[in-house]
């Protein structure tokens, strides 16, 4: 638990906070480890982990814990561990915080006051598009020295690749590797629904890596007739099965994305894989099966690329704090770490570039993207 800050007459110990917010993904623990290791070993600072995004700043007492490089004996394991030891939530927006009675309250000032009471000099927030927007607003309102680290399997944060994306693509590719032999054995069309929110990056990347015949992404509304043509042409060329990858928010030309309503009334994308499976089964003389990959894309061990990025992001974020460069986000571009104004990154949403090389690659391979 947190102890009061000791002021010394020598150099003031720098005290930083770190939190993870929004949906989890593989590589978050590797970032926490990297930040902690660099801050403590290189700079001699103190590092405090704030639990469950900003929720840890809203409870009495605050849920804040001093981190050390051994992490209670699991320091080394953190590099490999999925999830986040700090916890995370996508329901902890301090500007609209759900109280026990179900009403919403603006608790932002409480989070800010607690942050300052803890004597934290800076905050490193590891978040997605939504989480980093909230953190940026909070930092501005509360004069918090903030550095952002991008994470999301969706890869939808502009100007960077995000932690967790590579692992999600790997998991989806592995799923296709598993679906291909059973599709071939049973002469079936297998439809794999992947996550990605409003962007088709996971579907496009995994579809290419896993040899899909059809890849459907939200950036390109699809027409069923193009999918059936592609499957027919695969059959005519002598192959008895097909693989279709569909992003959760992909939709037909004249329809909105399909949503699932949960018990608490919230809605999320889902169901498009099943929908396509049923439609193809109706229209064509083929047997179809579909599976939604779901949260397995977020959990599990980070692959090497995410660990490397997490290590680089953690160190870079600490160096930005050391240099007093706040309101910035670290970024991964051309296999190298850099940084840019956080506002620039959160000011736009990174969708699949229809003129980009991966779309051209897919088309060059004869993969149908549902529009031709
Ligand atoms: O943003 C990450 C993500 O996994 C999306 O790809 C997906 O649409 C959503 O979160 C699922 O959210 P939840 O964890 O609330 O089900």
Give the overall form. Answer: elongated
| Gyration radius, in Å | 23 Å
N-C termini distance? 59 Å
Give the helices and strands as they follow along the chain. Answer: EHEEHEEHEHEHEHEHEEEHEHEEHH
The helicity comes to: 25-40%
| Major sheet: arrangement of strands | 3-2-1-6-7-14-15
Unreliable runs = 1-11
The beta-strand count equals 15
The CATH architecture of the largest domain: 3-Layer(aba) Sandwich
- Tally of discrete structural domains: 2
Structural class label: alpha/beta
Largest sheet: 7 strands, mixed
Q: What is the CATH class designation of the largest domain?
A: Alpha Beta
Heteromolecules bound? 6-O-phosphono-beta-D-fructofuranose
Number of H/I helices? 11
Task: Describe the structure in your own words.
By secondary structure, this protein is an alpha/beta fold. It folds into two domains: 15-163 and 302-333, Rossmann fold; 167-298 and 354-364, Rossmann fold (3-Layer(aba) Sandwich), CATH 3.40.50.460. The chain has eleven helices and 15 strands. The chain has helices at 28-42, 75-78, 108-117, 129-142, 165-186, 201-209, 224-236, 272-283, 304-322, 342-346, 357-364; strands spanning 15-20, 46-50, 64-67, 97-98, 104-105, 122-127, 146-150, 188-194, 214-216, 242-247, 259-261, 267-269, 287-292, 328-333, 336-341. The strands form four sheets. Strands 3-2-1-6-7-14-15 form a seven-stranded mixed beta sheet, with helices on both faces. The chain has a four-stranded parallel beta sheet with strand order 9-10-8-13, sandwiched between helices. A two-stranded antiparallel sheet has the order 4-5. Helix 1 runs parallel beside helix 9. The longest helix is centred in the middle third of the chain and has 22 residues, at 165-186. The chain is elongated and about 75 Å long. Mean pLDDT is 95; it is low at 1-11. It binds 6-O-phosphono-beta-D-fructofuranose. 6-O-phosphono-beta-D-fructofuranose binds at residues 23, 90, 128, 152-154, 195-197, 248, 268-269, 298. The site of 6-O-phosphono-beta-D-fructofuranose (F6P) has 13 residues, from strand 12.
